[in-house]
């Protein structure tokens, strides 16, 4: 049986062996790239307005929907990127994602500290998005990513 691997419509035989978890090719959600771009775009909009709103003293009633939007879009991105396994949870980018989402979920309970928490979320997101692959894909369980050489 042939399963779709990515948005480029490549395929992989179901019975083929898979290398390490970080290099294994996986099935994806239909239109995963479109969903990922949509979630990421809305996530950036929600976070930007949320942090600015907190910095400039917008009311909690105005900011809570943005906070929840940031959480939902963050979970959406994690789902799209991690489907169909949860292997990413032990990789550098997955650990950073869990930390960011955890911090976002703390905001309603630590409202007086919301701005420093949100700034930390932005910093973690920026560092996580631009750090070298060897750190993003480093597994706290399996160690460095094993890449196939051609």
Protein traits:
2 strands; 5 helices; mainly alpha; single chain; two-stranded antiparallel sheet; 150 residues; disordered N terminus
Summarize the structure.
This protein has 150 residues and is mostly helical. The protein has helices at 32-55, 60-82, 92-106, 114-130, 133-136; strands at residues 2-4, 11-13. Helix 1 runs antiparallel to helix 2 (60-82), helix 1 runs antiparallel to helix 4 and helix 3 runs antiparallel to helix 4.
Which overall shape is indicated by the principal axes computed on the Cα atoms? globular
Oligomer: single chain
Number of strands: 2
Low-confidence stretches: 1-20
Distance between the termini: 25 Å
**Strand order, largest beta sheet:** 1-2
Strand content: under 5%
Count of domain modules: 1
Structural class of the secondary structure composition?
mainly alpha
Helix/strand order: EEHHHHH
Average pLDDT reading: 82
* Helix segment tally: 5
Helicity level, as a percent range? 55-70%
Largest beta-sheet details: 2 strands, antiparallel
Q: State Rg.
A: 18 Å
């Amino acid at each position: 049986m042939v399963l779709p691997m990515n948005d480029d419509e490549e395929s992989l035989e179901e019975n083929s062996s898979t290398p390490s978890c970080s290099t294994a090719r996986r099935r994806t959600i239909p239109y995963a790239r479109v969903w990922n771009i949509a979630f990421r775009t809305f996530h950036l909009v929600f976070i930007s307005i949320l942090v600015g709103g907190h910095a400039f003293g917008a009311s909690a009633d105005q900011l809570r929907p943005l906070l929840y939007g940031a959480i939902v879009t963050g979970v959406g991105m994690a789902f799209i990127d991690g489907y169909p396994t949860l292997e990413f949870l032990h990789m550098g980018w997955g650990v950073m994602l869990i930390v960011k989402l955890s911090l976002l979920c703390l905001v309603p309970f630590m409202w007086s500290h919301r701005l420093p928490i949100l700034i930390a979320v932005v910093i973690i997101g920026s560092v996580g998005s631009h750090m070298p692959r060897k750190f993003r894909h480093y597994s706290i369980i399996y160690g460095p990513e094993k890449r196939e050489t051609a």
